[in-house]
Amino acid sequence: xxxxxxxxxxxxAQEKAIVRVQENRMKLLLVVLLLALSTVTAFAQxxxxxxxxxxxxxDAALLNPESLQMPKDHSxxxxxxxxxxxxxxxTVAQFDPSKPKEEQWTxxxxxxxxxxxxxxxxxxxxxxxxxxxxxxxxxxxKIEKETPAQLVISYKQNPAASDKxxxxxxxxxxxxxxxxxxxxxxxxxxxxxKPLKIKIVNAEKFDMVIRYAWNEQAKRYFSVRExxxxxxxxxxxxxxxxxxxxxxNYSKR
Length: 253
What we know:
Elements lengths: L1 H55 L17 E11 L2 E9 L9 E6 L6 H12 L7 E11 L3 E8 L14 E8 L4 E9 L3 E3 L2 E15 L4 E15 L2 E16 L1
């Protein structure tokens, strides 16, 4: 009798083990299927955009975020105007990649006057902290608008590839506008989809428009104007902050 109970208990344990193995297999299969579905969806989303690019004769390299980064082999000038609560600050600076890294940015003036050492250090620190090249989440591509004159696509950045300073971008969508007559990129607009936490600042609104110009000699796009409008909250009070950055006089080094 005792032997019969032991055998029955062993069979029950073996049956439970088999059930657990089958459950684990089903879970693994489900994960594989979800990953496969995600890959197919991402491919389909990007494929639709690539098809539109092909129809209109647009270079697909435009989808590579690196192609729109600020150049590391060109010098250029920057005039940056910050407007907040009725006050305005204008900074004029120059970038020269041939100089040592810590001296590549030169602050020419602030509000028409020579800058203090602290102003120079603060400006250089902020510029050097700017986010690196982001990666696009292929599953988020969309064709927003397609007319004889214009193609607008949208997408989001891959949050897994964002650095700490650029982590807030996961809650933003980017809109790329292409002129179909010239086949050239005109602008990229970044809009927040929910309130953002940018370092210590809470932003209810984040609206940035970057205008580009094609440089035939360099065979690449250069940023010419960046207009950032934010509604930030300090101690529960909303404040509008606008930063206009104008880039000019690009020169190969």
